[in-house]
Every structure is written in C-alpha cells, then in structure tokens.
Design a protein that fits this description.
Distance between the termini: 31 Å
Helix content: 40-55%
Structural class: alpha/beta
Shape: globular
Largest sheet: 7 strands, mixed
Order of helices and strands: HHHEHEHEEHEHHHEHHHE
Number of strands: 7
Amino acid sequence: MELDIGVRHPMREEAENHHDFKGLTTDYFDRRSETYDQDAIFPKLAFVIIRHADIEPGHCVLDIGTGTGRLALQAAKMVGDEGGVVAIDLSAEMLTQAHFKAGMDNLSNIQFIQGDVEEATFDNNAFDRILCSSAFVLLSDPHAALRQWNRWLKSGGMVTFDAPGEPFGINSIIAEVAEAHGIDLPYATIANTVEKCKELLESSGFEVAEISPELMQEHRMLTEEALFVWEKSLAHPAWHQLNLLPAKELQQLRKDFETKVHAKAKDGTIVSKIIMHVVTGRKKTDGV
C-alpha cells in the first residue's frame, strides 16, 4: 500500500542543527546500530508495545524512533498489504539495519524516513496507530510531541509509548544522586509514576486507554558490574545533562553513586530491577 500521509521532513543536516542534543543522539545510535538488537530488554519491550497497540489489518501506523525496525516490521506484517507503516529515526545507521531486515522479510509496505520527528510534518488524521518504543524520553518536549501526535491520529486512533518507571535498575541510583544535587533528569522522571503518565495523556488531549507497569528485568549482578553502569549510562544521550556539569561536581556525584551502590549491595551483589511504563492513549472521537 502506497501511503499518502503528506510528509515533509528535514534532512539530517537540518535536524542536527536544531539542537546539539539531536546530533549527540544521532551519533550515539549510529555507533550502537550493529549491536543494538543484542540488548535483552528491547525485544521484550517491543513485544509488549505491539501487544498493547491493538494493530489491525489495513491500519496506517507511524513508528517513531524506529531504530533497527523491530516494531515497524512486526506492524507491517500485521497491517498487511492494505495497510502501511511509516518509520522515522534520526540515525542513518539504525535505518540501514531496518532496511536490511525489511528486505529479508520481503516487506514492501514500510516507508523509512531519516529525520527528526519533532520537526516532521504529517497530515492531520493520517494514522490509526502511533508507536514509540525506547525513544519517548529522548524527545526535547514530550508534551508538545504528544499534542502533535494527537493531531496526526485519526479520530479514535491510539498512541502507545514506553517510559522508565520505578525502579529503573541501577540507573535509579544515578537519578537519586542527581536529585540530591538539585538536578532533575527528565529521562528518569518524565513518566516514572502512573499519575505522571495519566497527566501526559490527558493534558495532550488523549483519553487514557491503559497504563501498564511492566517488569522488564530483575536479576542480581556483581557490585563491580553495577558500578560500571555509571560509565555506560553517561555515554547515553539521555544523561547528557550530567556531562555538562563541572568536572569537580561530576566527580562528587560519581562518589555519591558508588557509596549508594555499596550500601545497597549484599555479599558482593546487588539486585537490579527494571520497570517500564507502557502507556496507551486514545484520541477522542469526533464530537466528543
């Protein structure tokens, strides 16, 4: 199915000039593209998103932050030849992986776009479903994005996205330390409670369809592995605010983080538990 969704999107150079954060995000995921699918959480999270999205044959679906295309490919199989999928991502290298997988599956009902969804302009009432997995918390303005997505959806259409809940593994300790220093990390706090998820939807014109806390992972890890999470997380663009701190202050945050990890550890190990909120909102039907 050829999709006519009136898309006008920025080229990569325009997206990168929009904000330094966008370039940082693009570069990070370009580097991650070949190993991204090896992460144990992402396949499980994609399955949960699809389960909540209620995609039907013939639907037109927008997949935001498609990455290597895991959600887009599954959605394309579900909507069939009478439907279609538009998949957008900042990272050219991630989209290379997605293109390859779509070709391997002989899928021709996916349109891949490299660009910034916060700068893209689709026609109003163009989509039946909008999906966003592992990307919502990377948006510059999540509230504004949701309002825009509401306009892109058809009457009664649905959006499904995920965001870190509580706890969020060892990263929760980083967020605690940052908060103690007066630093709010939106990645960890934008939708970490059911109440915040509900407010996000309702303030953007959606009805709450479902807010589901999902256990993604729970395991005991060595204390040394937990301490390494600091370096791994600070390499991620979601935590870029910490990298902007003066070196002395960042060093103190790291010391506080290490102190908390050791305090929570027992017999050389610490439990890491990750909860993700899977949030589904429905655009109000015409006349409501």
